[in-house]
Amino acid sequence: MEKVKELINIKRLIEEDNEDNWKSVYKEEMQKLEKVFQRSKELAYNMYVKNEHTEEYGMLEAEVHATMSNPALRQTLKNWEQDQDDPVWKKRLHVMIRQIEETLVDSDPRITKVKNELQAALMQKEFFVDGQSFNVATINSSRMELPNQELRRKLHHVVVEYGVEVTEAFRQLILTRNEVAQEYGYKDYHAFKCAFRGIEFQHYKQECNKILEKTEEAWKNWGQQIKERFGWDEIYSSDWLFAASNFSKVNQEIFTPAKIVEALSDATKKFGVDYTLLPIDVKVTQVPFGGACMSISPDDIRMVVNERTGNTVFFTAFHEFGHALFNAFSSKQYFELDEFKSIIAHEAMAEILATISSQEQWLKEFWNLSQSEIKEIVGSQHLFELALMRYYYYFSLVEEEIYKNPNCDFKEVADQLYRSVFGKEDVGFHPATELLFISHPVYVQDYIYADGVRDMLLHTLGINGMYGENEAFHILKEKFMEPGERYSWAEKVQQICNEPFTFSYYGNYLATGTKTR
Questions:
Q1: pLDDT (tens digit per residue) in 173-188
Q2: Fewest CB within 10 A of the end CB: N or C in the chain?
Q3: Are residues 167 and 410 in contact, defined by beta-carbon separation less than 8 angstroms?
Q4: What is the distance between the alpha carbons of residues 336 and 94, in angstroms, rounded to a whole number?
């Protein structure tokens, strides 16, 4: 078997002992790695957005793993980090070492082989219900768009049945991830990912359970209103996202995806930024997820939004635009501090931009809606976020459980945890058919952390959304976006808000529907 090549000259880094010379060598070698990462992200974009699967992507993953898994590289970087007095260089090397250690697990060929096969099979799978053909993209869209309650429920059951069929292949992915993580000293893969996120998962669960308790009355009230609004006797697991996305009686047809780019340009102009000068390409098309943003290179940031109608598509568009702006404004001075930004920080910027989609000023000025229409949309956004919090929390609990107990009955776990979080018996979401669990594992809880950060920042800045908030935008640009990973997400929150991170502002919003100032 041919040996997989390494992407950088590690020997140069090991042998150079003059500090200034070593830093020059390091910079040259990181530039090589940067180009590989850019190509890999371009191929990933093509895979997710265009459903193009190539052998090159797998080869690059193998080459990255071969490079990162060289113990001499990690040890050399650790030695130089230990000897560094310069805080920026120390941080750069710390971030690079952390990324190497995470990549060692995630790019392990044993994992990527199973993951890529599962991902391709799921994205290419067709489902036939009531004489109609559906794929993962159309089924995901149906969760928010399909008005036929019975058909939505049938689709949900068909997908769950397929999850049962492919359980053993998915279980192999979970077992393999656990095996590789354990080789690096972690209890399981879930514990490994939480460690690299800086998350104490048990504390997270305690805080989320407090939010569930605090919002119980609001949740029950919305549940009753949903039944009345749609004429349903029951609310099934396949109903919540549709209800939350379509509760408002405002005509959703006006929120056409054809206006997404115009809306982004308008909001950017309010920040004093010329949209046309940003290196951001926006594509609106059918994809098997709500949206995505990939920073291929400093001058090539690609954003995609699932093509559908309704106010929630603008929530998604502004969310992804938040990612894009973070990538655009993050300092490019240091490769590591730009390339390996915290996911929680990224999602926080995405969520704070997404506030625009339900902000009174935007709805009035951009769409010329009436006060009654605005009130409906603002109220339904509260329902939408209540539902999303429960979905995210539910999925994060399912994910924790399947890594802790990989030989469990996945469907049984999904059903039990659905009852625990949503408060009623029903068929849960089979983890083997949720693309997020395959392609972005142990990620979903980051959305809840991000919303916690969002509501802390809104409170400190004294605003209830970002539209027209030029001063607030430039504070976030300077203190949150531009530093990249120079400071952790928690450090940046502390610096801006003058208090440690807390979920309390987020919990208050979900309980009351009002952003605190």
A1: 999 999 999 999 999 9
A2: N
A3: yes
A4: 9
